[in-house]
Amino acid sequence: MAGRAAKAALFDGLASVAKALGNGRRAEIVDVLTQGERSVEQIATEIEQTVANTSQHLQHLLRAGLVRPRRDGNRVHYALADAKVGELWASVRDVAAAQVADVERLAAEYLGDRSQLTTVSRAELTRRLGDGDVIVIDVRPRAEYEAGHIPGAVSMPLDNLAQHFGELPTDTVVVAYCRGPFCVYADDAVRALRRAGRRSARLEDGFPEWVRAGLPVNRGAGG
């Protein structure tokens, strides 16, 4: 019995990580934090929850060892505990997308019709960046761009993208990227660019996948 009880306790402990992710808002927080560190207030805004509710979710993730806090004066910032947490979330997301029938329908309802959107693979984008025949725009919020971005990418957050159309060459394909395969920012950017008569495409997935593929990353305000 002692062995059985010890084994049960061990597996309960291992399962605590999955239990912490067994809530949509907590999964959403992990997804946000794959882009970089955020304050509690920023996370609350991203997931459209109160600061109090967001703090409770963060405490669950903290107890499971999935995030780590950093205090800056009166403000607390959170980041993923390490890169493996991001890999875990990507695996959970990908298995759900492949195996859970409802996920495809839910994704279509959220993302809309993607059938007319051109996508570019990471390998193709890497080649075209080397050839210099493409403009890459990062349409995530500026803070995420500064935390890490594709070398050569220009920060053009979706909220004010239209203001920058005049800065983009009319004879070059524009490739937009954002947070990952279930992020709508790049989709909306491509649609807006097409309405403006620009040739455009979106990266096949997003910045976290670029990082996990071991591709180069720049940090800070510069391209």
UniProtKB/TrEMBL annotation:
Domain HTH arsR-type, chain residue ranges per copy: 6-100
InterPro entries recorded: ArsR-like_HTH, HTH_ArsR_DNA-bd_dom, Metal_resp_trans_reg, Rhodanese-like_dom, Rhodanese-like_dom_sf, WH-like_DNA-bd_sf, WH_DNA-bd_sf
Boundaries of every Rhodanese domain copy: 130-219
Entry annotated with the keyword Phosphoprotein: no
Key words of the record: DNA-binding, Transcription, Transcription regulation
Pfam families tied to this protein: HTH_5, Rhodanese
Stated name of the protein: ArsR/SmtB family transcription factor
